[in-house]
């Protein structure tokens, strides 16, 4: 999906109209600087003011839920108060770095990549091209992450903040949580609170300019190696996620492991032009630099 182009004829039409209505003693050249505003390319990538709400979920269904499911940065940097957290999974989704990031791990000029959940049943509608051969895309439709139970009093402000944090192309929905298999085997450990959680996902990705479309992992790895945004380097996001899955005892994710490996193969940036970010530094270096 290409970014949407802005309407280039509109300013010309506005200027033509303006020259007719300006008072005689005010020249167009005096007005133009006042009209000059920075372009807003964020919008071209569907980086909205806040996340959208799934139109298929009734407001009263949302109002019963006090749990958030994190599968990306929310695993390694939740950033909100919670009463407790526990490992969980959602079924029927795949997790891919096919979401652009203009506001966290990239910029509108050089978008990075972050993970988004895609409904596995939407995969059939997407043109997978080369990826179908490479990625066995629809087979890994269980996504492991962390569930966070939030106190009633904190809930409104947590959701408000998350809606802003996940504004780049995400839609807030509800998903059923499942326990990890090892917890099912050990009935004592199954969390009695497991139920439904709020999750931010890529709704109708085929219509989203935040969505890159399916990519082979080498392409994604190259973008991640060279992007950096207000929340830090893009490769630190990937490594932190892989590390966090491990440290929380969650099953490894084959796709993320392959992507990390592909990242290690990305050649370092040359010295021509501006160096945007360091490339896939070792985990130890990144851990040291970005430790919480
Ligand atoms: C996100 O919450 O989507 C990204 C946050 C981060 O990059 O740390």
Automatic annotation (TrEMBL):
Its EC number is 4.3.2.7. InterPro entries: ChaC, GGCT-like, GGCT-like_sf. It comes from the Eukaryota. Keywords: Lyase. Transmembrane segments: none annotated. CDD domains: GGCT_like. The keyword tRNA processing does not apply. Pfam families: ChaC. This is glutathione-specific gamma-glutamylcyclotransferase. It comes from Durusdinium trenchii.
